[in-house]
């Protein structure tokens, strides 16, 4: 197991484009950390600088207290899995996996043992003679993962490896990768723009925005206690209502909740599962649409000023389009000037 330390790395491309701005992070031995953010947030650039495929403009990258900032990729104790798989199509699976081991000068019998073991690990035992273009997308991604793991890296780097796969295959593979990572206890950094992947796989999530860390914490904390409106809106579904605080209450038309903050403009944020509905005529909101997902229903609502909200309900057949309802927030957060002012929870 190995420790990854990143201190103040930045990347400025020719022309002055700042991709990463003073980014720091420690990843503990055996930990899986997800870098999560929209396109252009700098997450893949961070990963490429750790792997040696981009040179930082400033900052230091260390693995087990040894600086590797300017060490070329082939000499770093890292293994990287790309979104595109990057497999050699003129080689079969065995040769793809054995290539790096041959460069290290390992004897043929040791190479064979390592390749067979890693193919077993990723669920592809017996696939060594297959050509890579004869494999499905999911199998190709397993081979790409195996090619990195066979070199026994200290740090595993995954750059949106499931982005090109369909939803069901993505879900299955991320469970398999998480199982393998925990079994090997390998320190892993995983880049994704998919919140579901981050929430289901990560020990910690680092939400990135404009090349910087917006918030870093455990998945449940990121979801339940977002520190900025950006994090609140990027992780999961969030309802935002603009209003004003006066005399200890946030108010927007007929929606009002007590908040112990100073007067002024503010933004109320409520998760759909924390927004209760009660039939009420007249009420501050009108049902626009109801979607029944079997396990729950999602009610689309509209306030008088056109603000749209969503509420998760256990019995969707109790609501219908055009119905007037009252809103009962069970938990919410309040934001002002791009930071959280106050938060309550459903069990408070």
From TrEMBL:
SMART domains annotated for this entry? AAA (SM00382)
Which key words tag this protein in UniProt?
A: ATP-binding, Nucleotide-binding, Transport
Q: Name one Pfam family in it.
A: ABC_tran
- Annotated PROSITE patterns: ABC_TRANSPORTER_1 (PS00211), ABC_TRANSPORTER_2 (PS50893)
Extract one GO molecular function annotation from the record.
ATP binding
Source organism, top-level taxon: Bacteria
Question: What biological processes does GO assign it?
Answer: quaternary ammonium group transport
Does this entry carry the keyword Transcription?
no
Taken from the UniProt entry, a GO cellular component term is: ATP-binding cassette (ABC) transporter complex
Keyword presence, Nucleotide-binding? yes
InterPro entries reported for this sequence: AAA+_ATPase (IPR003593), ABC_SmlMolc_Importer (IPR050093), ABC_transporter-like_ATP-bd (IPR003439), ABC_transporter-like_CS (IPR017871), Mo/tungstate-bd_C_term_dom (IPR008995), NA-bd_OB-fold (IPR012340), P-loop_NTPase (IPR027417), Transp-assoc_OB_typ2 (IPR013611)
ABC transporter domain: residues covered: 4-235
**Stated family:** Belongs to the ABC transporter superfamily.
- What name has this protein been given in UniProt? ABC transporter ATP-binding protein
User: What is the scientific name of the source organism?
Assistant: Ciceribacter ferrooxidans
């Amino acid at each position: 197991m190995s420790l990854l330390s990143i201190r103040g790395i930045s990347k400025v491309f020719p022309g002055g484009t700042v991709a990463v701005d003073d980014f720091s992070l420690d990843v503990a031995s055996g930990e899986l950390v997800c870098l999560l953010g929209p396109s252009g947030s700098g997450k893949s650039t961070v990963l490429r600088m750790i792997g040696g495929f981009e040179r930082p403009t400033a900052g230091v990258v260390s693995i087990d207290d040894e600086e590797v900032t300017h060490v070329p990729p082939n000499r770093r104790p890292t293994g990287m899995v790309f979104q595109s798989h990057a497999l050699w199509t003129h080689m079969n699976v065995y040769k793809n996996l054995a290539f790096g081991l041959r460069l290290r000068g390992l004897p043929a019998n040791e190479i064979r043992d390592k390749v067979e073991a890693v193919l077993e690990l990723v669920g592809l035992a017996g696939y060594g003679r297959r050509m890579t273009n004869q494999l499905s997308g999911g199998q190709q991604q397993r081979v790409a993962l195996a090619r990195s793991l066979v070199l026994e890296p200290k740090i595993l780097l995954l750059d949106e490896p499931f982005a090109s796969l369909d939803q069901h295959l993505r879900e299955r593979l991320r469970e398999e990768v998480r199982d393998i990572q925990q079994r090997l206890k390998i320190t892993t950094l995983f880049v994704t723009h998919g919140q579901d992947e981050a929430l289901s796989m990560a020990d910690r999530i680092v939400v990135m925005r404009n090349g910087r860390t917006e918030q870093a914490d455990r998945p449940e904390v990121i979801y339940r206690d977002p520190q900025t409106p950006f994090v609140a809106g990027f992780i999961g579904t969030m309802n935002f209502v603009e209003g004003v605080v006066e005399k200890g209450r946030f108010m927007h038309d007929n929606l009002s909740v007590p908040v112990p903050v100073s007067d002024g403009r503010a933004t109320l944020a409520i998760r759909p599962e924390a927004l209760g509905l009660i039939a009420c005529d007249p009420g501050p909101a009108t049902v626009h649409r109801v979607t029944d997902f079997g396990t729950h229903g999602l009610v689309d609502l509209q306030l008088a000023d056109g603000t749209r909200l969503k509420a998760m309900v256990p019995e969707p057949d109790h609501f219908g389009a055009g119905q007037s309802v009252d809103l009962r927030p069970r938990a919410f957060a309040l934001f002002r000037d791009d930071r959280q002012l106050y938060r309550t929870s459903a069990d408070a």
